[in-house]
Amino acid sequence: MELSKRISALKPSPTVALNGKAKELARAGHKVFNFAVGEPDFTTHPEIIDVAVQALKEGKTKYGPAGGSPQLKDAIIEKLKRDNKLSFKPEQIVVGMGAKEILFHLFLATLNEGDEVLIPAPYWVSYTAQVLAAGATPVIIPMPEDHQAPRLTPEMIAAHVSPKTKALILTSPNNPAGYVIKKDELLAIGEYLKDKPWWLVSDEIYEYMSFAEPHHSIGALVPELHDRYIIVNGLSKGFAMTGWRVGYMAGPEPVAKLVKTLQTQSSTCLPPFIELASVEALKRGANLMADKMDLLKGRKNLAQELINSMEDVSMVPPEGAFYIFIDVRDALDKAPGYENHNSFKFSEYLLDTHHVAMVPGEAFGVPGFLRLSYATSDEELKEGLSRLAQALKDVKNG
Ligand SMILES: Cc1ncc(COP(=O)(O)O)c(C=O)c1O
């Protein structure tokens, strides 16, 4: 019996696999420093939990409308107006089981066989897999050699355009690199895109974690893009609600219509008690989590300081999300057996021998890097990063 060639070619998410291995070690009784997780280490705000519990008690346990309840769509519209200076109608909004599902359906809804999707490296692991699953081809825009350079320029995009180009994905604040695309950079990219007949998928899920400058939505800065701009967001990161699985898109009505059709044929709806809690979170907005965001910023500064003190190590300037993309290429150049900046092999050594989990750059299309998630305690950061420094010394000494 034959399986799907397209799906058989996909690899399972490497971050999920690494987390599994770290958890196995922990189950075996080892103290593991896990910096591989892509979620805040704090729990959802108690007042949001209360709303869900109350809704459950009131019997809000039935199917809801596919693609999101009117109340949740209204809360999203208000949020997009307040935080992003963007204006949408309910018909332009679709809610789903996390931004991950929404993105999957968005690619299925907008791409055809042979279409090319421009994805700047390093990229979130699921974009390439989802684009491939939709029958299209990811075209990677390589990361600039210079860490301090702008992350993405019109010239970098133009160098990878072909007649088959159908979409561009932007992720700012960025996972895994922790950079934020600045306002003037977004304006330049937006200007370049004005006459391009492509979808612009803007994944803004880390918007509340923009530490360098306030978050800007390219769709608000360059309103002429309205007929191709699709903003994707969710409650996982900014509201520490990863397990609740709430994601949404807002964009041109024909796109929303198709994504909603896919929702009706897949997960159908969010549980209504989760929708009600989400309405409350969206109404409260960034203020609800402001103290947690300050905490994350403090940890970023601590991790940055510790990494700066390491030999042969540098990093992409961390400006947002809760990741630091650590450049270990110089260190691996001096390590026998780690040719071609094999950070995958090094991450295995780091976990097996020093019990520190970090996702290798290969997972995001850039060997020679490690992604540190600093959504963890100061103590863990201090000990874990001191173990990283030791592991790098070990491999340099062969
Ligand atoms: C850049 C980016 N987009 C989307 C997602 C999906 O988030 P969720 O499905 O939890 O809403 C993630 C999660 O790690 C992410 O890092």
Automatic annotation (TrEMBL):
Its EC number is 2.6.1.-. Keywords: Aminotransferase, Pyridoxal phosphate, Transferase. Residues 31-388 form the Aminotransferase class I/classII large domain. Its cofactor is pyridoxal 5'-phosphate. One of its GO terms (molecular function) is pyridoxal phosphate binding. GO terms for biological process: amino acid metabolic process. It is an enzyme of class 2 (transferase). Belongs to the class-I pyridoxal-phosphate-dependent aminotransferase family. This is Aminotransferase. The lineage of its organism: Bacteria, Pseudomonadati, Bdellovibrionota, Oligoflexia, Oligoflexales.
